[in-house]
Specification:
Elements (H helix, E strand, L loop, with lengths): L1 H18 L15 E13 L2 E12 L2 H21 L7 E3 L3 E4 L15 E11 L2 H8 L2 H6 L3 E2 L7 E4 L3 H26 L3 E10 L3 E4 L7 E15 L1
Antiparallel strand pairs: 1-10, 2-5, 2-6, 2-7, 3-5, 4-5, 8-10, 9-10
């Protein structure tokens, strides 16, 4: 009986060793492959392809019907201004005005009030004509000269967008992965090893930021990939 048990135990131990499972007092049989985790960065500066500009101006009055006429008149002036600077009707849309009744405000002194009604008017420009929008936005002083009360710079700030990310994604991911490989190879040379196959890879999120202050129409696209390589002697 003891002999049968010894044979069974030997077979069991042989099976465990063959499968690389046994590691207790006999030492580690199955060793995890050596790996190195590296990051690869890819950056590219691109031109914005869309400009968004909410052109705002205010009109005051004490009679609503007359205020409406004045709003329409000044809106025509602004639309003509945009067309003179290379934009057409497909590049902008007229939004509904926001009319405030100053007499309803608890914070306005009626003795110092000039207009009872203030209409804030907005024309939304969304166009791929980047140069035309930049040109027009730099000439808003002309509108003031025509009697249009353009709102402050914050309300009239132009923002720029880049919507062509899908077109450059494959190349940038390939570049980031290539850079990760170069980093892994440098590590391998320093440690006297060689880079093996990819064990795992993770693509980071793409980020799109302004290239610099004052260059908002230029965008910096960035992505980081994390790649795990096996390392062999």
């Amino acid at each position: 009986m003891e002999k049968k048990m010894s044979v069974a135990a030997l077979v069991c131990v042989t099976f465990l060793i063959g499968c690389g499972i046994l590691s207790a007092g006999l030492g580690q049989i199955a060793k995890n492959p050596r790996t190195v985790s590296v990051r690869g960065l890819a950056e590219r500066e691109v031109d914005a392809d869309t400009a968004v500009w909410k052109l705002s101006f205010s009109v005051g009055g004490n009679d609503l019907p007359l205020l409406k006429k004045e709003v329409l008149r000044q809106t025509e002036i602004v639309c003509a201004f945009l067309k003179e600077n290379g934009l057409d009707e497909s590049d902008f849309s007229i939004l509904s005005p926001e009319v405030n009744d100053a007499s309803m405000s608890l914070y306005v002194d009626p003795n110092r009030r000039i207009y009872q009604y203030i209409s804030k008017n907005n024309i939304l420009v969304r166009s791929s004509k980047i140069s035309a929008v930049k040109e027009a936005s730099s000439k808003t002083l002309e509108l003031i000269g025509k009697g249009v009360s353009v709102c402050n710079e914050y309300d009239n700030r132009v923002s720029y967008e880049f919507n062509g990310l899908n077109e450059i994604k494959p190349e940038m991911i390939a570049q980031a992965t290539k850079n990760a490989r170069l980093a892994a190879e440098q590590f391998a040379r320093d440690s006297g090893s060689k880079v093996g196959k990819i064990m795992n890879a993770t693509q980071g999120l793409f980020s799109i930021d302004n290239a610099a202050t004052g260059l908002e129409d230029k965008k910096n696209v960035r992505v980081v990939t994390t790649v795990v390589y096996s390392i062999r002697n």
